[in-house]
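Quick illustration, no need to memorize.
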Amino acid sequence: MIGYGADLVQKLLALSQQTAILLQLMIVAILLLVARLAAWRLEPRLERLIRSIQHPDHKMLRFAVILLRKLSWFIFVALCGIALLLMHAYGWPGSVFVVNTAMILALTWLVLRLLSQMIKSRPLGKTVAYGVWAYVALLVLGLTEDAALLLGAVGFQIGNFRLSLLLIVKMVVLIGALLWVAIGLGNFVDNRLQRTEDLTPSLRVLIGKVLKIVLIVAATLIGLSGLGIDLTVFAVFSGAIGVGLGFGLQKVVSNFISGIIILMDRSIKPGDTISLGDTFGWIRELRARFVSVVTRDGREYLIPNEDFITHQVINWTFTDALVRLDVEFGVSYDSNPHEVSKLAIEAAAACPRVHAGKRPVCWLTGFGDSSVDFVLRFWIDDPREGLTNIRGKVLLSVWDTFQEHGVNIPFPHRELIMKTPVEISGNS
């Protein structure tokens, strides 16, 4: 009889625990629904209020909008906290594990989503947030050891080395974190280098790229060693990787090496005005694989580094920004060539962009079929502002000057002399 009573008590306790868990699940579901409805009603009003602020700080405005997008989670965490206080105050029978766990997981998710905004890549940020939240959930639920055993059981053997899902997860997490730190540190040092006036632009870029590569390689090796992986295991794959680099990544490696050569010989640097084929513009940035060239029409061309090694490149500002330009024209034979040369020089010198320190020159180059031909030469020190436009302005100035002084610019014509007069007759 006593044993029967003990069993009954245990059953009643188990039933009460199940009932308490179900009630807590219902409470969590109701709180989540209330939080969603409240956020749905409040979010538009709060956003209009924030955007109505005169002259807002754009960074603060963006941060406020991000917080508004998470308003439902803020409300849910607050409601869970209030529910826990009330449950403790009124003597909730048994444990409040479900509500407490729901609040912890919601708060963790909220913090992770806010911190993931620091990562520029949104997919990467979401992946990190989901991964860390999953680990925290397992930790709170006390399932970390079970999950580790399950992941460790799935894998395969490579010689004396076993590759399991658990090891892959640890590798991704550890190496990913180290790479993130390495890239962030590399970008920080690179930004500081770009502000250093003691180094040339090419040397700054070269040091920045080499430093990033060293940091990435070091982070990868440290991560593998930290996981207890013998790096000699990868010696088996080194031959295959070398063959793959030789065939599949030939262009990539070639562009990378070409980029290093460009940086070392300083043939081009950011800010230089260059011509490569039909592309004329100035260099905005030197990257590991390509060079960013911005043209006058605002287009940005990403030209492989190899092209700057194998093709002829005109660097208008390699040693000096001073550039000589030529324009050709012809005048009629009844013009005084001495006067024409003088007027052309004055017309070119009157243009604002023509360099005042080097006076233009004008030379007679030949006697054409219909005109006396000249070449007008002048200098500019701002090729980045364009070449065609300054040529056009100089020609317009020459035209206006010639019109003012009665100098004619002929067009091709032919004079026919008939030895035998020809009578033209027609029907009246």
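Residues 1-6 have pLDDT under 50 and may be disordered.
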